[in-house]
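Dear colleagues,

As part of the handover before I leave the project, I'm documenting each prediction I ran so the next person doesn't have to rerun anything. This entry is a single chain, and its sequence is reproduced below.
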Amino acid sequence: MLEKVRIYPVKRTVKLDMDTILEKTLKIFGNGKIEGDSVVATFPGLKSISSWMEKGKLCVETVAEKCDDPMEAIRKFNAFLEEVTGYSTSERKKLMSKV
């Protein structure tokens, strides 16, 4: 099992709060609940995905697991990040390469 915490910038025009993160988590992964200060969900390939806000940024901790279709897990995860941050995969890549 691999655990990773990543921090993602969020577009200024995107509303970022727990209710919005929960709504988008339910939309993309089909499940999710608020546990303390984070929204937690599961999906094949992701044993756990926890999301929370910190200083206007999205923090995401994932625990990976083996699955039959890892590409589907990656697609869902990228769709979730785009929904919550407002940045596409290529936009996030450009932002991360500037750091």
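The two ends are 27 Å apart (CA to CA). DSSP finds three helices and five strands in the chain.

All the best with the project,
I.
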